[in-house]
Amino acid sequence: MSNPDQIQRILFDELDIRGVVSGVQQTCADCFENHDYPAVIQQVLGEMLAAVSLLSSNLKFKGRLILQAQGRGNVRVLMAECNHDRDLRAIARYEGELDEQANFVDLLPQGQVVLTIEPEQGQPYQGIVPLDGENLGKCLENYFLSSEQLPTQIQLASDGEKAAGMLLQVLPAQGTGEEDWDRVSHLASTLKSEELLELDNETLLYRLFHEEQCRLYEPDDVRFKCTCSRQRSEASLKLIDKAELLEVLEEQGKVAVNCQFCNAQYDFDAADIEALFAENVASGGSQVH
Q1: Which CATH architecture describes the domain 230-282?
Q2: pLDDT tens string 13-53
Q3: How far apart are CA 172 and CA 170, in angstroms?
Q4: Residue 159: how many other CB atoms lie within 10 Å
Q5: Angle, nearest 10°, between helix axes 230-237 and 270-282?
């Protein structure tokens, strides 16, 4: 496949076009390991992981990029995120029977995708991606063209066990060549899903662009890594009324916070809860009821 668990940029020496190719294989396995997802969910989550890894290649700051899709069918939420360290994670929420032949758009009737960029410092940015294409790649292409006026081509492929993607985009504020873009994007459009999944990046690049002057940057590794922690769990508990938590303690003997992504569980006893709210009062924090 496109080099597994790597993001690799493509440099076109004489063109104002940027390119990125990504592959996720072990990352998919690790994301799906603690979830009994049906094949169709694994396939579309694979596409989202490939997509978010491609989009994260343009992050110039510490933070994370999140793709979240919601619809009014049996699939409630699909979400994938990637941070500046190339840590990936994904999750799905659904109910009932799913059409195993459905694609990303079919699974999300009356749906939309929200693209969120959250820098560690500064204000987050959020954009709405309408589901107005035949697949996730086309929807994202339309979003970039309408919101940023950047001609973009995004191809995604997933078989439920591995996924890959390729992104081509006109560089902003450069201004050369509609002709160049038409030629390069046409060459890329000949790429088949099977080739994207199976060919290594060097072979892929040669097959598509051997008449162009282009080369691959050194790759960046990607991996599944959950960002949950006991500290984050503590922060979420501080937003709950203390009396409610003490009620749970009395009924269950502990307050358990489960991570939806990796199934890690963080347990808090009575002393932990008292300490949490003692900290909240000392720091001047207020409870949210």
Answers
A1: Alpha-Beta Complex (3.90)
A2: 889 999 999 999 999 999 999 899 999 999 999 999 999 99
A3: 6
A4: 17
A5: 70
